[in-house]
Amino acid sequence: MVLVFSGRRPLSLLLLWIALALGASARGELAIEITQGVDAPVPIAVVPFAWQARGRPPEDLGKIIRFDLARSGQFAMTAPEDMLSLPSRPEELYVRDWRVQGIAYVLLGSVRSTESGVEARYALFDVFAERLLFDETLEAPPGQLRALAHRISDRAYEQLTGIPGAFSTRLLYVVAQNIATEAETFRLEMADADGANAQTLLKSREPILSASWSPDGQTVVYVSFETGKPAIYLQEIATGRREKLTDFEGLNGSPVFSPDGKQLALVLSAGGNPDIFVLDLETRKLRQLTRHFAIDTEPSWTADGEAVIFTSNRGGGPQIYKMNVRSRAIERLTFVGDYNARARMLADGRYLIFVHRQDGIFHIATQDLERGTVQILTETSLDESPSVAPNGSMAIYATRSNGRGILAVVSIDGRVKYRLPSTEGDVREPAWSPFL
Amino acid sequence: MAGLRAYLWPLAWALLFHAVALGLFSANWSSPPALRQSSTAEPMMAELLTLVAPAPKAAPKPKAKPRPAPKAKPKTQKKAPPAPLAEAPAPARPEKAAPERNAPPAAPEPEKPSLQEVLGTDFEDALAAEASSDASDRPEAVGSYEADLMARIVSQWSRPPSARNGMSCDLRLALVPTGELVSVTLVRSSGNAAFDRSAELAVRRAAPFQVPEDPAVFDAYFRSVTVTFSPNDLRY
Fold first, then answer.
1. Taking CB atoms and an 8 Å limit, are A13 and B25 in contact across chains?
2. What domains can you pick out in chain B, each with its CATH number?
3. ipTM of the complex
4. Of B38 and A427, which is predicted with more confidence?
5. Residue closest to A352 by CA, chosen among A360, A340, A362, A361
6. Cβ contact, residue pair B85, A16, below 8 Å
């Protein structure tokens, strides 16, 4: 504690002070305060799960969990070939095997058959404290092994980080193929958060845009040009049942559900130029929120549903504004730089994530609304459409690589970055699901 | 009671001195220190009070004679605050204090009485020693072992993403003379289990620690160590 004082005050006085302070506490024990850390990834081992069910394992549970946890950037993974033993039950774990390698936590488990499917028993062990953190079981239907693995990842992640895991969530995105040719096609797809299990929700010869989720994760809304002009559709995921919500003259764009799922904020230009509207999904009544000769677009809701934030060029260049939906009181949120657009508010209400142009390059950035500081999260260029994971830890966005549109993920603190495995075609407009 | 009264002056001097020193210090302390020290300034006052409290027990003892030390002390210390301390303050002061005190000079560390000695002598001596030699009770080496212990923990502390500046927990470490960690106890939780666990993991990974070889010094300072984890370098 007496260590790193920097400063210009006389050394003698400093020493005296230290002497006094320490002298006084000399009879007590040492009391130290640690105010800094290194935040290196914590070493963790996910032991290959023992397969005690019928047949051969269709999926490698341990591997899926390893990928999940590694992608979070919070953990350093031990490869199975470096493990000194492969326990599948806590009773079989020898602490020394892991301690010598400096591994802090071991996740292990097994899968067995049940009448209705499979059951995983999995446990997380704290090596240094020699303590079992949990030992649980989870059942799943036969075809749901990946989902089972993601659930286990969620559980371990929450236990170790204090934040709910978002590995069991899904992504929506649009894949465009053969752009600007006769065979141009657009697909609205849904996949697991790790990119696996992609399913097509809609296929069209005309563009699909701005897909987003209902808060319960059962329904999606999007803009489709399938009739030759933009219209907003609502689609139930499970049944595929669709409903056209708006197809006014001009623009029908950027639909987003309110946090309670009862309203939709969207952009219409029927009045001449784009403004933000709110559609009540029960009464189907439309209410105009903004009324300005400038372009108001890309709405999204604050977590409490009290306000809508949107992009407007009413001040000259595009900037982010916030409007209370009842009082219509308006407030400009962004001031750094001459281009800020497509904003989403994080659930804590303190941070805004948006597209920010710096030196002609479009990056994903966050702004601390309390301090006003802007942090650029990505080193890629032409980044667009950030969408935040429901646990607030990561954002997915669209960017370009080798002339192709791809999806990439960045942690909200900018420390962790990864790209999603790319499918063929141009991938764009990602939307991260709520907790499912 | 008469014996007790005899303490009034030395005690008054001691308190006055501490107040002056504290005043000097705080007047000069312009920018916040690089490392916040939660446990220093205030505990100093508390310690004085606890020392005063048991006085009645000590009073009846007839051998309460070593007044010279307390009397001499105010002078020594009044001189001390200005400049001359700059170079090597610790050795300088005890040299004066030691002869004044009746305690036999400890062989291995002649420059200051060992802590055990101070603790072992009766209350007057302890008070005199405490007042006359203030910090010199703390062997110089303690600081470097302490720094080492701290650095090791810092280098192992990975905060979970849910950690926020302002969170704080206290762990009590029980060490043995070989520097091994016998136990870690969470004495005050931050309210965030993941945060508390990250602190505990940092301590366990940092162990074993370098500790002083002198058993007295070890017992006094390192057998039990309280570590407060309160990050101030996080983004949030």
1. yes
2. 2-28+35-137 (no CATH), 140-229 (3.30.1150.10)
3. 0.80
4. A427
5. A340
6. yes
Domain ends where: A112, A141, A161? A161
- For tokens 């910090």, what's the residue? B135
Mean pLDDT of A272-297: 95
Nearest to B21 among A20, A40, A74 (CB): A20
**Domain identity same for A124 and A239:** no
User: Can you list the pairs that B101-109 forms with residues at least 24 positions away whose Cβ atoms lie under 8 Å?
Assistant: B101/B66, B101/B69, B101/B125, B101/B128, B101/B129, B101/B132, B102/B66, B103/B129, B108/B214, B109/B139
With CB atoms and an 8 Å threshold, state whether A28 touches B85: no
Closest CA to A347 of A434, A280, A261: A434
Q: Which of B30, B157, B230 sits opposite A38 (nearest CB)?
A: B157
Distance, CA of B194 to chain centre: 31
Residues A182 and A138 in one domain: no
Last residue of a domain, one of A101, A126, A161: A161
Q: A313 in a domain, yes or no? A: yes
pLDDT of residue A217: 96
Domain count, chain A: 2
A107, A48 Cβ separation under 8 angstroms: no
Q: Has residue A239 been placed in a domain?
A: yes
Q: What integer pLDDT is reported at residue B21 of this predicted model?
A: 67
Nearest Cα of chain A lies from the Cα of B61 at a distance, in angstroms, of 23
Whether A194 and A152 share a structural domain: no
- Choose the closest CB to B150 out of A3, A20, A25: A3
Structural domain span for residue A340: 170-432
- A350 and A373 belong to one structural domain: yes
One domain, residues A175 and A153: no
Chain B residue numbers touching A2 (CB-CB < 8 A): 143, 146-147
Q: Please indicate whether, in this complex, the C-beta atoms of B133 and A23 are within 8 angstroms of each other.
A: yes
What was the pLDDT predicted at B236?
A: 73
CA separation, residue A212 to residues A188, A236, A256 (Å)? 11, 12, 6
Identify whether A238 is part of a domain.
yes
Q: Is residue A14 part of a domain?
A: no
User: How high is the pLDDT of residue A58?
Assistant: 87
pLDDT band at A20 (very low <50, low <70, confident <90, very high): very low
E strand or H helix that includes residue B196: helix B193-206
DSSP state of A39: -
Examine the domain organization and report whether A259 and A143 are in the same domain: no
Same domain, A150 and A203: no
Decide if A29 and B224 are in contact by the 8 Å CB cutoff: yes
Distance from CA of B228 to the nearest CA of A (A): 4
A309 DSSP β-pair partners = A300, A322
CB pairs under 8 A between A and B: 229
Do A156 and A175 lie in one domain? The reply is: no
Residue B232 Cα distances to A143, A313, B36, B47, B83, angstroms: 47, 38, 9, 28, 34
Percent of chain A scoring above 70 in pLDDT: 93
- Of B151, B193, B183, B187, give the one whose Cα is nearest residue B171: B187
